[in-house]
Every structure is written in C-alpha cells, then in structure tokens.
Amino acid sequence: MNTHPFRAPTSVTMRASREGRHISGAERIVDARDVPAASALLATRAARHPLGPPDEMHIAAHALRPEDIRVLPELKQESHELPSVADARHTLARILRSAGISERAADRALHTLCTITGVPGAQVLDEDGRDTGVVVRARRLDHVGSSLSDPQKNHFLEALTLATKVASAPGVLAELCISDDPSYLRGYVACAGTYHRVSPLKEEGEPVGTRIILVRRGTDLEALGHYLRDIPVIVR
Ligand code: PML
What we know:
Shape: globular
Protein name: 6-carboxyhexanoate--CoA ligase
GO molecular function: 6-carboxyhexanoate-CoA ligase activity; ATP binding
Strand content: 35-45%
Cofactor: Mg(2+)
Strand order of the largest sheet: 5-11-10-9-12-6-7
Structural class: alpha/beta
Radius of gyration: 17 Å
Subunit structure: Homodimer.
Number of strands: 13
Helix content: 25-40%
Distance between the termini: 10 Å
Number of domains: 2
Bound molecules: pimelic acid
Largest sheet: 7 strands, mixed
Catalytic activity: heptanedioate + ATP + CoA = 6-carboxyhexanoyl-CoA + AMP + diphosphate
C-alpha cells in the first residue's frame, strides 16, 4: 500500500567529519513538527560516534512533497553467523555468486569492500567488479519503525532501510556493506530481493568499513545517483 504517515514530510540529514574525514552520517524523514527532535537526536549521535568526536557537523532539513514519497516493503531477511571472518567473507562471495554475479566480480567486490574505508557513500562497481569512479550516498530515506527518542544507532534497521532503497534503484544487482564502526562486526549483502546479514565480516577494532554497489552493464549512473540521492523513500 503506497501510504505513509506524514502530513508535512521533511528530510533531515546529518554529516559529521574530523580533519576533513567523514566519520558519521544519517538520514531521517519526519513530520515538520518533529524536525527539532530529529536534529537533536542526530547531533547527539554524531557527538557520540565511536570514530568521533567530530570537529565539523552539518544538519540540514528539506521539505518534501507528500506525493513524491515512495513506500517500499522491506527486503526479506536471512542471517548467517559464521565461526570466522574468513568463513563470513567466503559466505558473502557465495551469496553473490548464487545471485548470478560472476566469480571475478564477486572477488573484486569483496576485495574492495575489505580494503577501503572513509568513503562518504557507496563505491559503484560494474557487473565485472570494476570501479566506475562513482561514489553515491543514498539520502532521503527512513523506516516507519525508526525511533524519535533513542539516539543510539540501530545498525540493523538503518542498514535494512538503506539496502531496501538501493535494491529498488535502476540497474542495481547487489549491495555489500561492512560497518565502519570498529566494534560492529556484522555486515550484509543485499541481492535478489533478500538482505543477508553476515557476521563476523571483520575482526574487533579493524579499521575498515564501507559500502559497494554492483550495477548492471549500461546502467545510467546519473539516473542511479538521482534516485538514490533525491527520491524520498519510506520503508515499511
Ligand atoms: C553501518 O554501521 O552503517 C552498517 C551496519 C550494517 C548492519 C548489518 C546488520 O546488523 O544487519
């Protein structure tokens, strides 16, 4: 059902950095009357980020038109708890291959995922796993179940929300993520309609964490960026 609970939907975005390096970002869509509460929540969260405290923080609010909002059902979910990082990474590559991604692309995507960090968005790779040179950060998204009172990051709900929006974008084959929180070891791969939670994708304290999006050959990267940045999505 394409309905959402907002009379005056407003996107609230937070970005925080230190010495020019991105450390925290978050997205909410709330009713206009809840913008002060959402802004305070996101400011608290940036200040408490494990990679913080930031020396620069931006919070922006942007009014949305109710009729522009798309309501999407959340992806199906599966959990994979593995005994080691090596097993978890192997499982992630296996899931990609079972969704039709080539072995070479799966290996390249996994290598990129496990070696970079500090990117303010997702790195977009083509279906052979080659870097397209595009980094895109999905904005304007939220889940109907998100809290307006708890500043603690809900890694799972936020990641599921973002993955649901990314999976609905034109040309997307898969999305992979390792959290940049040094003590959050669970990550995911979203493909073929399912959000696979996989753990542990890194060792405690390991300074890696990023997102990768794999796209079909010929995907219009401008249109992909526009959808992910500008089209508001509520997940339920
Ligand atoms: C992040 O910290 O931004 C990514 C969190 C990944 C969540 C994986 C999960 O718990 O399902």
